[in-house]
Design goal:
This protein is an all-alpha fold. The protein has a domain of 221 residues. It has 15 helices and no strands. The protein starts with a helix and ends with a helix.
């Protein structure tokens, strides 16, 4: 592991001295050398992630795709997701935060330290044990994933936050590029939470970069258009593409069921959907099935022997679908299992948001239109 770290450090030093440092000199920003050195690491990690996406996850998508994506509209939608990925993974979004929000963070945390509220170093809980690199990395990973689970649930259960986060779920052609498809304001909120937590628990910069990189790579894989699951045991140890696809499934992944569900169960392949999952109107179901290339013939059917319902299970008396859903875990499905939001059914449903199918709601076809419509949804104008 040390030799790998050494290679990375040498490459980072070379890139900084060859490109970043001269650029900072030319722009009269020599005071930002330390920040520029750190930004170089983030850029390199982003490049490595994209290499893994193209060289490893891409071939998996071609090997066992869930659905074909050959139409011009599909390819155009995926290209927008690629743009989101490049913006986030290569540091452009982080660079924007550096010149806007970071100064405010510095002032706030500086004021707290001046007032006597120092950082709580979580890795010092058990000197000699928790301060070992591997142990502290595992602890920090668990903490960040626990926080991510609850922020993710907040995105789905707070109406105003869902108006932003729904852009992420509006992708009907989910691929390895879809993870970073987010409204910029949504990304700012999540990054703010992550930065505050990192400061409060005292995670080291190099460990923080590693945690973020591992998380992002795993999330890219979870969004991949690949028919893959980890088996009965593996599904409960790490979030798989199948587990996360259920979270994106229309009428299931982001709506609150009112009937008893099969959370935690794992029926055999080909099983019908979660008990209480609600079918769209027949005409819309046909459109969704056609769009999905015949995914799951009973993708929105009730289980055999269940009584049908005139109204969707997640629809209140006013006809408004209640927010909620299943499979919020970012890395570990443990939190879903612990808090009763896990669905381990082995199925692959069409992805998207219900109102795209039933009401043809427009979430935008380009980067800026998606951002603009998200703001309009936030203020109730779209």
């Amino acid at each position: 592991m040390d030799w790998l770290t050494g290679i990375f450090a040498n490459a980072q030093g070379w890139l900084f001295q060859a490109l970043v440092q001269p650029a900072l000199f030319a722009l009269d920003l020599a005071s930002l050398f330390e920040d520029g050195y750190g930004a170089t690491a983030w850029f390199m990690v982003g490049v490595l992630q994209i290499v893994v996406l193209v060289a490893v996850i891409g071939p998996l998508q071609r090997w066992r795709p869930v659905e074909a994506m050959d139409s011009p509209a599909d390819r155009a939608s995926i290209r927008i997701d690629v743009l989101y990925t490049l913006i986030h993974r290569l540091g452009l979004f982080r660079l924007a935060l550096f010149f806007t929000l970071d100064p405010w963070f510095d002032v706030a945390f500086g004021a707290l330290r001046t007032a006597g509220y120092g950082t709580f170093h979580l890795d010092q809980l058990w000197p000699g044990v928790t301060d070992k690199a591997a142990v502290s990395l595992l602890i920090y990973l668990l903490v960040f994933d626990f926080v991510a689970y609850w922020t993710h649930r907040g995105q789905h259960q707070l109406t105003w936050w869902w108006q932003l986060h729904s852009l992420h779920h509006a992708q009907r052609q989910m691929t390895m590029w879809s993870d970073n498809r987010n409204h910029l304001l949504d990304s700012i909120l999540i990054d703010t939470v992550v930065v505050v937590v990192a400061q409060l628990i005292g995670v080291a910069p190099d460990q923080f970069i590693l945690i973020v990189a591992l998380t992002q790579l795993s999330e890219s894989f979870q969004h991949a258009n690949v028919r893959l699951w980890f088996g009965r045991v593996g599904e409960r140890l790490w979030v798989s593409p199948r587990f996360h696809r259920l979270h994106h499934s229309i009428g299931l992944g982001h709506e609150a069921p009112t009937l008893p569900t099969a959370c935690g169960s794992l029926p055999p392949e080909g099983a019908l959907p979660l008990q209480g999952a609600t079918p769209p109107e027949p005409a819309h179901l046909k459109a969704v099935q056609a769009r999905a290339g015949g995914l799951g013939a009973a993708a929105f059917s009730l289980r055999p022997g269940e009584a049908g319902s005139a109204a969707p299970a997640s629809e209140d008396k006013a006809g408004v679908y209640r927010l909620g859903g299943v499979n919020f875990g970012v890395l570990l499905p443990w939190w879903d299992m612990l808090f009763g939001t896990a669905n381990f059914e082995l199925r692959y449903d069409p992805t998207g948001v219900r109102d795209q199918v039933e009401k043809q709601r427009d979430y935008g076809s380009g980067f800026w239109s998606q951002q603009w419509l998200g703001m309009k949804r936030l203020v109730g104008r779209a």
